[in-house]
Amino acid sequence: MADLLNIGLSGLAASKTQLSITGHNISNVNTPGFSRQDAAQATRSPQFSGAGYIGTGTSLVEVRRSYSEFLTSQVRSSTALSSDVQAYKSQIDQLDSLLAGSTTGITPALQSFFSAMQTAAEDPSNIPARQLVLAEAEGVARRFNTVYDRLSEQNTFINKQMSAVTDQINRLAGSIGSLNEAITKASANGQTPNDLLDARDEAVRQLSTYIGVTVVPQDDNSFNLFIGSGQPLVVGNSVARLEVVPGAGDPNRAEVQFVSGGSRQGITTQITGGEIGGLIRYREEVLDTTLNSLGRLALSLNEQVNTQLGEGLDLKGNVGTALFGDYNHPDLAALRANAFSTNKSSANASLSITNTSYLTTSDYKLEFDGNSYQARRLSDGALMNVSNQNGVLTFTDSQGRDQGFSVSVSGLPDSGDGFLLQPTRRGASDIKAVLDQPDQLAFAAPVRSEASVQNKGTGVIGQPDLVSASSSPIDLVAIQAGLPQTLQFNGTGFVDDAGNPVDGLTRVPAGDFKTGEVNTYELTLSPGNTVRFTVSGRPEANDSFTLAFNQNGVSDNRNALKLVDLQTKQTVGVDPSSDVSGMTFTDGYGQLVERVGTLTAQARLDGEATSAILKQATDSRDSLSAVNLDEEAANLIKFEQYYNASAQIIQVARSLFDTLLSTFR
């Protein structure tokens, strides 16, 4: 009877535990990361009798969770990848809409500016037309400013989001460290604390949404977590932390430091995966390049327009005034070169633009080793050749290509000091229209030509074109010193009115005058100031032509037409060491929009793909580990029946015992 009673009691206890486990599963059906549990049963050791071994009941061996490290690892890695792509995509979608928008992009403003310039060139003395040019110039400058502001706001958001994400990473890392300690203690009895393991797995999965992690299980059931290039975020119950700090070279650009004990290590470029990885990847691949591309375009527009205006005359006969502000103002030049916060000395640097056509869209790192300067282009890591002329540094790459800027360092840097050089980063922010007087727009050319009314031949002289100027704005005194010039035809070429060769006059190409064809000549008015003109037709001997200063060129639009031509002139990204052409303003911006559009389309495809991969990984894990309410309901009925049956065994044992007792009464 005692054996039968024990057997019934063992079944009763086992069924009760099974019911408790089933109830636990049901109550946690919506608990994130919970893995379905079940109990493993085994028979008790049998007892020997004369007839053989007789069973003594059942016992619970362990409570197991339905778990696969492989499937869980897939969910973690898929989560990190999907969060990375989604963070990247959310930012680039905004940028794509901004750059390609008809009301927010740069192209419509550029087209309006040059359209207004074309209208003014058709009637150069028309003041309202000139006023429209000023208004559109202010409009295109503001459009650059506005786009820069939106990108700057995006950079600020990324900085704040990196800080918020880092706080979440540190919180979860601390939780995982605590769970590691609890799991290690609970596992000391040889059994696995399933709920603690599930809680830790869920914490690691949540951590994967913020940053990519590598999980290394240990023998004591704890997890070691590594990030970046192997930095130990969690080792047992020891937890390091991440901190977001202002960039060493650019305080407006947040960087991530790994802090362990008293040591710090910058790991921004080593972080991959998760939301913070996607934000950093977007900033490096898209945002920085976009800011630099816009800045280069704004600087090029600024220089080309101002330079061309400086080669013309306004309605009062004065040299043209700059339409846009001076991008090499000392205050602006100082903002382009940032001393690293780790520098030992107080040396400062300023960066001046020397030629906007040669600028790239890269930042540069300048370092001093105690004797000389070394520079590296950060976009491709290429080393630059640094030339130091009286404290002014200029830069060329390995092919001898000028980088379009120079740097002046004030003070003596210490060995190891460095500077972050950003030639174009603020270009779109700094451009502004400064001219407010329409009559000061220099639409006229400084030199004019005319044929003598007494000429007998049919020779025609074209209006001269200033092809080189020693300075911008032009030196009127130097140009006027070489004027007027009288050219007299002698049958084979031109001489002065005394019959002597004209100083500085050359035919291009060299040779005698060819009657009936277009003959091109260049005349040097003063050192560095040369005009080019043509003579065609059939001039006769002693016919004369005059080049003079264009004192009252009110209706002259030659310089205005050159300004219009800037729209189709390839002035952006020119390679000075080869025949590779640059890009126009529109093409330069179009290339930027196309690149961002391509990356946006790729990000959308990646988003769909990674979401599908994450769903597949999650479904695979859930198929094994998730709670199925239908199955648990069936288990409730099954284990209830087992419980009732075990109770019936006890009832039978009691009846037998009562019967046995009654025989001795």
TrEMBL record:
Output this protein's name. Answer: Flagellar hook-associated protein 1
Q: Which residues form the Flagellar hook-associated protein 1 D2-like domain?
A: 342-423
Question: Boundaries of each Flagellar hook-associated protein FlgK helical domain copy?
Answer: 93-324
Q: Which organism is it from?
A: Stutzerimonas azotifigens
Q: Where is the Flagellar basal body rod protein N-terminal domain?
A: 5-34
What the entry lists under InterPro entries is as follows: Flag_bb_rod_N, Flg_bb/hook_C_dom, FlgK, FlgK_D2-like, FlgK_helical
Q: Which UniProt keywords apply?
A: Bacterial flagellum, Cell projection, Cilium, Flagellum, Secreted
Would the keyword Amino-acid biosynthesis turn up in this protein's UniProt record? Answer: no
Q: List the NCBIfam families.
A: flgK_ends
Coiled coil ranges:
none
**Main localization of the protein described in the UniProt heading:** other
